[in-house]
Amino acid sequence: MGIEDLETKLKTDSTRKYLLFRNIINSINKRSMKKHGEKYGDVFAFFMSMAHHLNELGFTKAKDYAVVGGYGTALYLTRFGERILSLWRGSHDIDMVTLNQELVGAIFPGHYPEYYSGKSTLLPDKMSIHLGDYLDDDVTECSVDCWVPIEHAKPNSVELRGRLYDQKFFDELIIIPILKIPICVPPIYSLIKIMSKGGDTRPQDLQDMIDLTTVLAAHHEQGDQLVQNVPAQTSVWLRDTIYGNNSLPEPTIASVKKKSDHMTYALDRVGPFIEEFCKAASELELK
Q1: pTM for this predicted structure
Q2: Tell me: the pLDDT tens digits for 226-274?
Q3: What are the start-end ranges of the H helices in the chain?
Protein backbone atom coordinates (compact mmCIF):
# COMPACT_ATOMS: atom_id res chain seq x y z
CA MET A 1 0.00 0.00 0.00
CA GLY A 2 1.00 3.66 -0.26
CA ILE A 3 4.70 4.39 -0.68
CA GLU A 4 5.56 0.68 -0.76
CA ASP A 5 3.44 0.22 -3.90
CA LEU A 6 5.31 3.02 -5.65
CA GLU A 7 8.75 1.74 -4.65
CA THR A 8 7.84 -1.73 -5.94
CA LYS A 9 6.73 -0.24 -9.27
CA LEU A 10 9.89 1.86 -9.67
CA LYS A 11 12.18 -1.05 -8.81
CA THR A 12 10.36 -3.23 -11.34
CA ASP A 13 10.40 -0.61 -14.09
CA SER A 14 13.97 0.60 -13.78
CA THR A 15 16.73 0.55 -11.18
CA ARG A 16 17.83 3.96 -12.50
CA LYS A 17 14.39 5.46 -11.83
CA TYR A 18 14.27 4.01 -8.33
CA LEU A 19 17.73 5.35 -7.47
CA LEU A 20 16.78 8.80 -8.80
CA PHE A 21 13.63 8.70 -6.67
CA ARG A 22 15.68 7.93 -3.56
CA ASN A 23 18.25 10.59 -4.44
CA ILE A 24 15.55 13.26 -4.75
CA ILE A 25 14.07 12.27 -1.37
CA ASN A 26 17.44 12.33 0.38
CA SER A 27 18.58 15.60 -1.21
CA ILE A 28 15.37 17.46 -0.33
CA ASN A 29 15.41 16.01 3.21
CA LYS A 30 18.98 17.14 3.79
CA ARG A 31 18.25 20.76 2.87
CA SER A 32 14.84 21.00 4.54
CA MET A 33 16.07 19.48 7.81
CA LYS A 34 18.84 22.08 7.91
CA LYS A 35 16.52 24.98 7.07
CA HIS A 36 13.14 23.97 8.53
CA GLY A 37 13.76 20.97 10.76
CA GLU A 38 11.33 18.91 8.67
CA LYS A 39 11.71 16.16 6.07
CA TYR A 40 10.21 17.66 2.91
CA GLY A 41 11.71 14.81 0.91
CA ASP A 42 9.35 12.41 2.66
CA VAL A 43 6.47 14.59 1.46
CA PHE A 44 7.80 14.13 -2.08
CA ALA A 45 7.56 10.35 -1.54
CA PHE A 46 3.91 10.76 -0.53
CA PHE A 47 3.27 13.00 -3.52
CA MET A 48 4.63 10.45 -5.96
CA SER A 49 2.77 7.55 -4.32
CA MET A 50 -0.45 9.56 -4.44
CA ALA A 51 0.14 10.40 -8.12
CA HIS A 52 0.75 6.70 -8.81
CA HIS A 53 -2.56 5.67 -7.22
CA LEU A 54 -4.50 8.47 -8.94
CA ASN A 55 -3.13 7.22 -12.23
CA GLU A 56 -3.89 3.58 -11.47
CA LEU A 57 -7.50 4.45 -10.60
CA GLY A 58 -8.04 6.43 -13.80
CA PHE A 59 -8.31 9.91 -12.28
CA THR A 60 -5.27 11.21 -14.18
CA LYS A 61 -6.51 10.10 -17.60
CA ALA A 62 -9.88 11.70 -16.83
CA LYS A 63 -8.17 14.94 -15.71
CA ASP A 64 -10.17 14.81 -12.51
CA TYR A 65 -7.68 16.75 -10.38
CA ALA A 66 -4.98 19.40 -10.60
CA VAL A 67 -1.81 19.78 -8.57
CA VAL A 68 -1.19 23.42 -7.64
CA GLY A 69 1.16 25.31 -5.30
CA GLY A 70 4.78 24.28 -4.87
CA TYR A 71 4.32 20.86 -6.46
CA GLY A 72 2.82 22.52 -9.52
CA THR A 73 6.05 24.50 -9.84
CA ALA A 74 8.09 21.32 -9.35
CA LEU A 75 6.31 19.69 -12.29
CA TYR A 76 7.25 22.58 -14.57
CA LEU A 77 10.84 22.56 -13.34
CA THR A 78 11.19 19.07 -14.80
CA ARG A 79 11.26 20.79 -18.20
CA PHE A 80 14.96 21.10 -17.31
CA GLY A 81 15.21 17.39 -16.51
CA GLU A 82 13.96 15.34 -13.56
CA ARG A 83 17.29 15.59 -11.72
CA ILE A 84 16.52 19.26 -11.04
CA LEU A 85 14.08 18.03 -8.37
CA SER A 86 17.09 17.18 -6.19
CA LEU A 87 17.69 20.95 -5.99
CA TRP A 88 14.04 22.01 -5.73
CA ARG A 89 12.98 23.78 -2.51
CA GLY A 90 10.52 21.06 -1.49
CA SER A 91 7.24 21.68 0.33
CA HIS A 92 5.75 20.78 3.69
CA ASP A 93 2.41 19.84 2.13
CA ILE A 94 0.61 19.05 -1.13
CA ASP A 95 -2.06 21.24 -2.71
CA MET A 96 -4.62 19.87 -5.14
CA VAL A 97 -8.07 20.77 -6.48
CA THR A 98 -10.85 18.57 -7.87
CA LEU A 99 -14.53 18.64 -8.82
CA ASN A 100 -14.85 14.92 -8.11
CA GLN A 101 -15.99 14.33 -4.53
CA GLU A 102 -15.35 10.61 -4.95
CA LEU A 103 -11.64 11.16 -5.53
CA VAL A 104 -10.79 11.77 -1.88
CA GLY A 105 -12.65 8.68 -0.72
CA ALA A 106 -11.24 6.51 -3.50
CA ILE A 107 -7.56 7.34 -3.23
CA PHE A 108 -6.72 7.79 0.43
CA PRO A 109 -8.47 5.25 2.71
CA GLY A 110 -6.91 1.82 2.47
CA HIS A 111 -3.70 2.99 0.79
CA TYR A 112 -1.98 4.45 3.86
CA PRO A 113 -1.64 2.97 7.39
CA GLU A 114 -2.73 6.23 9.02
CA TYR A 115 -5.38 8.44 7.45
CA TYR A 116 -7.95 11.03 8.42
CA SER A 117 -9.51 14.12 6.87
CA GLY A 118 -11.43 17.14 8.03
CA LYS A 119 -13.09 20.20 6.56
CA SER A 120 -11.46 23.59 7.02
CA THR A 121 -13.34 25.89 9.40
CA LEU A 122 -11.97 28.98 7.64
CA LEU A 123 -11.97 28.31 3.90
CA PRO A 124 -14.93 27.02 1.85
CA ASP A 125 -14.35 23.85 -0.18
CA LYS A 126 -11.06 23.05 1.57
CA MET A 127 -10.33 19.69 3.18
CA SER A 128 -7.16 18.87 5.08
CA ILE A 129 -6.08 15.26 4.67
CA HIS A 130 -3.49 13.70 6.95
CA LEU A 131 -1.48 10.70 5.76
CA GLY A 132 0.89 8.44 7.60
CA ASP A 133 3.09 5.72 6.14
CA TYR A 134 6.41 3.95 6.51
CA LEU A 135 9.57 5.09 4.75
CA ASP A 136 12.82 3.33 5.61
CA ASP A 137 11.05 1.68 8.57
CA ASP A 138 10.26 5.08 10.11
CA VAL A 139 6.72 6.42 10.34
CA THR A 140 6.47 9.63 8.36
CA GLU A 141 3.56 12.00 7.89
CA CYS A 142 2.16 14.31 5.22
CA SER A 143 -0.70 16.79 4.87
CA VAL A 144 -2.71 17.28 1.68
CA ASP A 145 -4.82 20.40 1.23
CA CYS A 146 -7.57 19.39 -1.18
CA TRP A 147 -10.13 21.84 -2.56
CA VAL A 148 -13.31 19.95 -3.44
CA PRO A 149 -16.94 21.19 -3.84
CA ILE A 150 -18.45 21.38 -0.35
CA GLU A 151 -20.19 24.65 0.48
CA HIS A 152 -20.89 27.21 -2.25
CA ALA A 153 -24.11 27.35 -4.23
CA LYS A 154 -22.80 27.30 -7.81
CA PRO A 155 -23.00 23.72 -9.17
CA ASN A 156 -20.05 21.93 -10.74
CA SER A 157 -17.45 24.36 -9.50
CA VAL A 158 -14.94 24.61 -6.67
CA GLU A 159 -13.73 27.70 -4.83
CA LEU A 160 -9.97 28.12 -4.53
CA ARG A 161 -8.44 31.29 -3.08
CA GLY A 162 -11.49 33.38 -3.77
CA ARG A 163 -12.04 32.25 -7.37
CA LEU A 164 -14.44 29.65 -8.75
CA TYR A 165 -13.12 26.95 -11.10
CA ASP A 166 -15.48 24.88 -13.23
CA GLN A 167 -15.15 22.03 -15.74
CA LYS A 168 -13.50 24.30 -18.33
CA PHE A 169 -10.51 24.68 -16.00
CA PHE A 170 -10.13 20.90 -15.73
CA ASP A 171 -10.60 20.37 -19.48
CA GLU A 172 -7.53 22.57 -20.05
CA LEU A 173 -5.22 20.69 -17.68
CA ILE A 174 -2.02 19.26 -19.07
CA ILE A 175 -0.18 16.12 -17.98
CA ILE A 176 3.50 16.18 -17.00
CA PRO A 177 5.20 12.92 -15.97
CA ILE A 178 7.74 12.43 -13.21
CA LEU A 179 9.57 9.09 -13.34
CA LYS A 180 7.04 8.15 -16.05
CA ILE A 181 4.11 8.65 -13.67
CA PRO A 182 1.65 11.11 -15.30
CA ILE A 183 0.40 14.00 -13.15
CA CYS A 184 -2.25 16.66 -13.90
CA VAL A 185 -1.33 20.33 -13.59
CA PRO A 186 -2.86 23.59 -14.86
CA PRO A 187 -1.24 25.37 -17.83
CA ILE A 188 1.58 27.54 -16.54
CA TYR A 189 -0.29 30.84 -16.87
CA SER A 190 -3.26 29.39 -14.96
CA LEU A 191 -0.91 28.14 -12.24
CA ILE A 192 0.60 31.62 -11.87
CA LYS A 193 -2.92 33.08 -11.63
CA ILE A 194 -3.83 30.65 -8.83
CA MET A 195 -0.62 31.34 -6.92
CA SER A 196 -0.96 35.13 -7.22
CA LYS A 197 -3.32 35.43 -4.28
CA GLY A 198 -2.41 38.96 -3.16
CA GLY A 199 -1.25 40.07 0.27
CA ASP A 200 2.12 39.25 1.77
CA THR A 201 4.36 36.96 -0.23
CA ARG A 202 6.15 34.10 1.50
CA PRO A 203 9.74 33.34 0.42
CA GLN A 204 8.64 30.03 -1.10
CA ASP A 205 5.94 31.79 -3.16
CA LEU A 206 8.50 34.20 -4.56
CA GLN A 207 10.82 31.30 -5.36
CA ASP A 208 7.99 29.61 -7.25
CA MET A 209 7.29 32.75 -9.27
CA ILE A 210 10.95 33.12 -10.23
CA ASP A 211 11.14 29.46 -11.24
CA LEU A 212 7.97 29.68 -13.33
CA THR A 213 9.17 32.82 -15.12
CA THR A 214 12.45 31.01 -15.81
CA VAL A 215 10.51 28.17 -17.43
CA LEU A 216 8.64 30.70 -19.57
CA ALA A 217 11.88 32.44 -20.54
CA ALA A 218 13.43 29.10 -21.51
CA HIS A 219 10.62 28.52 -23.99
CA HIS A 220 11.18 31.82 -25.82
CA GLU A 221 8.21 33.54 -24.22
CA GLN A 222 8.30 37.33 -23.89
CA GLY A 223 7.56 39.21 -20.68
CA ASP A 224 4.52 40.98 -22.13
CA GLN A 225 2.97 37.59 -22.94
CA LEU A 226 2.66 36.94 -19.21
CA VAL A 227 0.67 40.18 -18.89
CA GLN A 228 -1.57 39.12 -21.78
CA ASN A 229 -2.32 35.70 -20.28
CA VAL A 230 -3.22 36.54 -16.68
CA PRO A 231 -5.77 38.99 -15.17
CA ALA A 232 -4.65 42.61 -14.81
CA GLN A 233 -4.76 42.40 -11.01
CA THR A 234 -2.42 39.39 -11.14
CA SER A 235 0.06 41.29 -13.31
CA VAL A 236 0.05 44.32 -11.02
CA TRP A 237 0.38 42.17 -7.89
CA LEU A 238 3.29 40.23 -9.34
CA ARG A 239 5.01 43.41 -10.53
CA ASP A 240 4.63 45.01 -7.10
CA THR A 241 5.93 41.82 -5.48
CA ILE A 242 9.05 41.91 -7.67
CA TYR A 243 9.64 45.62 -7.09
CA GLY A 244 9.01 45.21 -3.37
CA ASN A 245 11.88 42.76 -2.90
CA ASN A 246 15.40 44.16 -2.87
CA SER A 247 16.93 40.79 -3.69
CA LEU A 248 15.04 38.22 -5.74
CA PRO A 249 15.90 34.55 -5.19
CA GLU A 250 18.05 32.78 -7.74
CA PRO A 251 16.23 30.41 -10.09
CA THR A 252 16.58 26.81 -8.94
CA ILE A 253 18.51 25.89 -12.10
CA ALA A 254 21.24 28.39 -11.14
CA SER A 255 22.44 25.82 -8.58
CA VAL A 256 23.12 23.18 -11.25
CA LYS A 257 26.88 22.70 -11.60
CA LYS A 258 26.94 21.41 -15.17
CA LYS A 259 24.28 23.40 -16.98
CA SER A 260 22.78 22.38 -20.30
CA ASP A 261 22.52 24.91 -23.14
CA HIS A 262 18.78 25.05 -22.37
CA MET A 263 19.49 26.11 -18.78
CA THR A 264 22.12 28.65 -19.80
CA TYR A 265 19.70 30.22 -22.27
CA ALA A 266 16.97 30.37 -19.60
CA LEU A 267 19.28 32.06 -17.08
CA ASP A 268 20.38 34.61 -19.69
CA ARG A 269 16.76 35.37 -20.59
CA VAL A 270 15.01 35.44 -17.21
CA GLY A 271 16.31 38.90 -16.23
CA PRO A 272 15.18 40.58 -19.48
CA PHE A 273 11.90 38.60 -19.29
CA ILE A 274 11.12 40.03 -15.84
CA GLU A 275 12.01 43.55 -17.03
CA GLU A 276 9.72 43.16 -20.05
CA PHE A 277 6.94 41.89 -17.82
CA CYS A 278 7.23 44.71 -15.27
CA LYS A 279 7.24 47.34 -18.04
CA ALA A 280 4.15 45.82 -19.69
CA ALA A 281 2.36 45.52 -16.31
CA SER A 282 3.06 49.19 -15.57
CA GLU A 283 1.75 50.25 -18.97
CA LEU A 284 -1.37 48.14 -18.40
CA GLU A 285 -2.05 49.87 -15.07
CA LEU A 286 -1.84 53.30 -16.76
CA LYS A 287 -4.51 52.45 -19.35
Answers
A1: 0.93
A2: 999 998 888 888 888 888 777 889 999 999 999 999 999 999 999 999 9
A3: 2-13, 15-35, 40-56, 69-77, 101-107, 167-171, 188-195, 203-218, 223-229, 232-243, 261-286
